Amino acid sequence: MKLGIIGKPQSGKTTVFNAASGHQEAVGDFSQSQHRAVIKVPDKRVDVLAQLLSPERAIYAEIEFLDAPGFTGKGKDSHAPEISRDLRLMDALMPVIDCFSPASSPQKDIRDLLDEMILADQVIVENNIDKKSRKIQLTGDKAGAKELELLEKCRTVLDGGNLLIDTDFIDSERKILRGYTFLTLKPLLFVLNIDENSISRAEECKSEVAQYLAPGKRDVAAMCGKIEMELVALDCDERKMFMDDLGIESPAVEKVIQKSYSLLGVISFITVAGPEVRAWTIPKGTAAQKAAGVVHTDMERGFIRAEVVKFDDYVKYETHAALKAAGKARLEGKEYVVQDGDVIQFRFNV
Fold first, then answer.
1. How many domains, the chain?
2. Structural element, H or E, at residue 230
3. Predicted local distance difference test score (pLDDT) of residue 30
4. Is the Cβ–Cβ distance between 186 and 165 less than 8 Å?
5. CA separation for the pair 324, 242 (Å, rounded)
6. Which of 53, 109, 156, 315 is 20 to 30 A from 24, comparing alpha carbons?
7. Mean pLDDT computed over 202-225
8. pLDDT of residue 31
C-alpha cells in the first residue's frame, strides 16, 4: 500500500512524514524536497502469534509513504501545479492540513488543495483529448473514439469543480481511467495537524471539516505532528510515560494506518509456516485462491484447499493439534472469502 503525503508549504507535511516513518528529515519551507520511506504496519495479532509460537521471523505488512512536493496552497490561482509521477502512482493521498498556526483556515486549505488536484487533472485531460482527437481524425480509431468520449466526460466533471472519484463510472470506464493516474480518482485521508493544546478536542476539530468526508472516498484523522515526531524518537518506556502525561492512548500514526486500510478497503490475513509468522495485505472480498497468489503464484496456480483458523481461536487453543481436535481448523475451497485476521495455511500442488 502506497500513501502520498501532500499539503501546502509549512502545513507540517514533512513533520507528519517523520512521525509516520521515524525519519528525521528537515522540516520547514522545503516544499521542493521529496522523501520516501517504507514502514512496518503495527499488528498486535502478529505480535501475539510470534510470542506464542516463537518463530525465527515475524514479518509485518508494509506501507510506503511519499512526502511529495508540488502543491502551493494557492488553489485556483496556482494554475498548473507540478505533480510528480511518483505521487500519481500512490494508492491514496494524505493531505496534511494546518490546524496549529494562529492564522490557520482548515476548510479553505482543503478547498485549495482540492482545486489544485482538479487543475492538475485538467491538464492531463486536455492534453489527451487533443492527442486522441488528432489520432482519430487520422486513423478513424473507433476504440479511441470511446476513450475520447470518456475523457470529455471527465473534462465536464473537472470543469464543474468536482472530483472524479465522486462520479459514477462503470467498471470498464474505471479500468481505462486507471492508466491516467488521476489525482481526483484517489481516496483521500485528510490529516489535521493540530497543536498540543488541541489534542483533547481532536474529535471537535474533525467535525469542523465533516462536509468534505464521504465513506470509502474521503476520511479524516487528527494528530499533533510535532508531538508524534518526538514520540518516535523515544525508547518504549519514555514513549509510554510521555503518552500517559499527554493523555494519548496510542500513537496517532497507528490510527492513520487503520483509517487508510478502511479507506482503501484492504484487510490483512496471517500465515504461519515453519520459521515464519507473516501478515499479508489484500483487498476486502478476496477469495482464498487469489489470496494464495499474494503469498506465491504457485500457490494460486496449484491451489487445493485453505486451512483457516480464526485468530481468537488460535490464541485460545495455542497448538495446531488442539485446534484440530476442537474443530476450529476449517478446510475451505477456492471461493472462500478471506476475513481480516484469518490465520491460513494453503494446500497446493504444482
1. 2
2. helix 225-231
3. 59
4. yes
5. 44
6. 109
7. 91
8. 55
